[in-house]
Amino acid sequence: MTTSGCLSFLLLLAILGFVGYKIGIAYWEYYQVREQVREVLTWTVAGQPKHQADVVKKVIAKIRDESGLYLTPKNVRLTQTANSLTLSVFWVHDLDFLVYTYPWDLEVSLTEAIRWGGRGLVIK
Fold first, then answer.
1. Who contacts 44 (Cβ-Cβ below 8 Å, separation ≥6)?
2. Closest alpha carbon to 109 in 83, 88, 80, 79
3. Nearest to 40 by CA among 117, 120, 112, 119
4. Residue 87, exposed/middle/buried by CB under 10 A (0-12, 13-18, 19+)?
């Protein structure tokens, strides 16, 4: 290889490494949020029925405390069927490249079977 060819290859390798690093950070955040949503969902479906507002507050607080990600109640959605509960969390992770910022929409949506008998989640 010539010197310019080697330099071009190293530059391309550095750019790909930088982009991979930025995407890796976003995936790490996604997996952290997914585990925190799973913990709150397990808490929600076990024991006594919970109010929707309490569940949303718990999700927001847990994600803020453990991931440093600030969400609003608009970022959290609860969907209940006769025997299951789905908890969805939406947020935007900005992939900051040197001259461009790409807003990447991320979503975690988990479903769990309801474990309380007869009484449902109080949705207001």
1. 50, 55, 58, 85, 87, 112, 121
2. 88
3. 112
4. buried
Three-state SS letters, 58-120: HHHHHHHHHHCCCCCHHHEEEEECCCEEEEEEEEEEEEECCCCEEEEEEEEEEEEECCCCCCC
Task: Evaluate whether residue 120 is within a structural domain.
Answer: no
Distances in Å between the Cα of 106 and the Cα atoms of 11, 17, 57, 88, 94 are: 30, 22, 20, 11, 10
pLDDT class of 124 with cuts at 50, 70, 90: very low
Split at pLDDT 50, 70, 90, the class of 113 is confident
Domain range holding 105?
Answer: 3-113
User: For the chain, what is the domain count?
Assistant: 1
Is residue 118 a part of any domain in this protein?
no
- Tokens 């071009």 label which residue? 8
